[in-house]
Queue: 4 jobs
Job 1
Amino acid sequence: MVNAATAIKQEEGPELLTMPADKDIGIYPQFIHPDKPFPGWLRDRIVVFKQDGPSGGKPVYVQVNGFNIGIPREIEVDIPRPFVDALRNAVEEKWERDEVTGVEGPRKIRRYNWELKQEAVNFDELKRALEKYIDRENKRIKKEWQIANANKGKGNGVNAGTP
């Protein structure tokens, strides 16, 4: 029978990384592909539709934390999730009169007309890459821990107290 006291007396070891929950896979971009643009970010497939007006057919430019992308219109594209969130948050207030009450008030509408076609199109790729990263890092952590513990018992090489 295992109780709390015996559970605490387990062999010491290094603290290892663990896989995050599936819902958190896309929040570790810096660990996956640091050499690629927008590394390790979940990507969503969207289409931005043409709109009326002089710029209604031009690409939509979105900026997030200093990164810029141009999203072409009328084409399905896979873009990083933070840019989809920026599009989702791009709203305007239009003042309209309620037909029933006659009261004027604001109504929030999307700045750009777009549609989400598929969420997390690269989820499996990111999950595999994160698993590889965690495995590689855990091997490094274990090795460093073993080296540190092997050197603990060794003194400074001087035999004090021997004639």
Note: Residues 26-151 form one domain.
Job 2
Amino acid sequence: MECDIFYTHNPPFTGGPPSQRCQRHEIDAGTALQYSVLGMSTSLSGVINLFVCGYFIKLWGPRWSFVSQTSLLGLRVSTQIIGVAVGGRKGELIFQVCQAIGMVGGPRGYQYVFNLFLFVVWYLVSLLRFPARKYTLRRGKAWVPSWLIIAVL
């Protein structure tokens, strides 16, 4: 995309084989800039996504939070495909703006919810296997913390 942008403002490529059309220092510098902006926005949106996902877990529970993280991740990737198809400066802007979807739903939140689910499963299995060893017994039955019941719902 950066190569197309370069040749919209400069004279067309006239020398050498067509495979060397995009091998210029200006194009490499523009590509490096866009790549670093993409990496920075991906990292920033991933960190924000962890906090948003934690809020969604408290608000809706892990099941619906998992659904929202997965569906919004698919939406982000779909819009980025559109950005690549558009190409040029508009395509780069679409690609970068769609990184904002990653703040609400993305792979970091997906992993967060999945790790929470695995922890809850581990906790329940260990509670069933060793009820008297680690956990308080009430009226002869294993006591389940209220936060675990809320997390499973």
Note: Residues 2-152 form one domain.
Job 3
Amino acid sequence: MRLQLAKSNREVNLAILNYSSSFSLSDSFLFTLLYNPFVFIALYPTATFPTQLQQAIIAVEHLITTGVHPSNLHLVGDSAGGQLILSLASHILHPLQIHPDISSPNDIPKQLRHLKLSAPIRGFYLMSPWVCLSSTSPSILSNASLEVFSTATITGYGVNVLSRIKDPSASMPYVEPANAPPGWFDGLGHVVERVLMSAGDGELFRDDILRFSKVLEAVPGDDVKPKSRKGKAKRLPELDFRFVLHGGVHNDPFVDFMVKLPESQLGGMTKVVVEWLKDGVDPPVSSSHEY
């Protein structure tokens, strides 16, 4: 991806917050780029929710405090990484309060630190996000013969993760964004300027992602808010949301890069992602870099 962007004079850096059980690129949370570090975060079942959210907050906070402006930052996540981005967005909109009786093996504070943004983050790309861990949607079964992992495997993961959440009533919207209450993502335009989300027509998560796409499509934007004390009406930033249903399976665009296809043979979704990121990264006019 970095090489593809460089061809159009978009110079970026990359940082990867990786939490795959095998420490591979699958199920990774690609943050922005800072000297190409790989930072491994605590894994389930040793670390349960909200450990990964806390670490994501710290990672983004670190990038911002080291000089990366939110408008120069893209967060890209696949599968559970996409879910983590949405969890982060939920926490910015609704700071999570940890119930006093929750204990963590990683000594997470009772109250998660609040990530304050001076401006909306430039973009989120959510590739095949795992938006419903307790899914019973038709595609969970109907696409089983097409998918890269089994229905039993993914539903088992979901049950195990959810069973270890100590305060489900308060935590569920952060863990299962597709089941968040109505209006939960209102104001998302204050968090991020543009969102691209994709799903494969042959993947298990298809129906859940389709359902969640309607939630983001309905996020209000450019609505006049009540007048401030100074008598001026305020407007909510409009969210630029795009959803693409392509003909592949879970995390399908990864395949293009793993098999090192030539540019002429890149799949349709891969080209969409490259162009979307290109549109979000301005050509450099100085020595500063986008992230």
Note: The domain at 2-280 is CATH 3.40.50.1820 (Rossmann fold).
Job 4
Amino acid sequence: MSRTLIMVFINWLLVFAGHQNASEPKAPPLWQESGFAASRLTFAQDGKTLVAVGLVKGGVGARIWESSSGKETARFDVTDDGPLTFPAISADGTAVSLAEADGTAIGVRNAKTGERKLSLDARMTRVWSMSFDPSGKILAVMDLRTSPTELRLFDLTSGKELPGIKARAYPGSPVFSPDSKLISIGKGVWDLGTKKQVVELERVPGNPMGNDLTFHPTARLVAAVGPSSERNSLTDVVGIWNLDDGTRVSTLDAKLDRIEALAYSPDGKTLAIAGRGKANVIQLWTTSKPERKLALESEGFRAAQNTVGSVRAIAFSSDGKFFAAAGSQTVVVWDVSSLIHAYRP
């Protein structure tokens, strides 16, 4: 075969591949809502409502919508010019934690009404970020006042402080494992029982929401955003790590400028990746054989048409029926059943 014919054949393949990408199945959202910059998302345990928290002018706020219809059912804003910290939502969507205005307390509030349920002593704490454990009984707080950075733990039943962990960690948000036995702090995963580090990960530092790491729901695996191994590359990749021996078992390159959020589906068969880029800002990958199967988009994730899109938070409902994403000033929800026509994880 002549060189000319070979080049024609290669060009035909490239064009065909381009058509394949262009015809990638599109899944229209179930609903979307604009006007709230959510930094964290979670569905209630029954999957019927979606709870979002984020920064508002002069403070923080929370919004609750019906998962199926997008109807707003509750909201509250705390706008008293308190210290800048990123609020957290309990796993069941019933409670929100935030640093109070005078910096002396961490308030745990009812997610629907904003009423303070509990006040934790934070007089000696410079709060950066917080996370609830899956049971909603423990609150983890990253304290920037200490050196090395200290993870403080509070019992939400008694309001008392528990023994914490002193870790040489960059500012970020702690993330609990599904069984509450492990917690990620900076580049390490720690055993909450022994207070010892189990695994050290290669991670990109600084995400204060903790959306850039997620534990597998059943397997001893954790997915985390890390630096690319390619020389001079400024893009992120996702590393999948084995928690038993600390090895990286696979690397996923979503080809985004920056990866902001990760989430496993409840059955662990799908990993959602979201971030900042010109296209495909949300991607769904199969986990058995890591491969991208579907990309989701919304113009609401862009400040203006044809600009770079950005998604900062994503979540699956625990029943696997809904998938939500938040970016810019927009929250979007998809019916997962509409996605299975595109692929079977």
Note: The helical segments are 3-22.
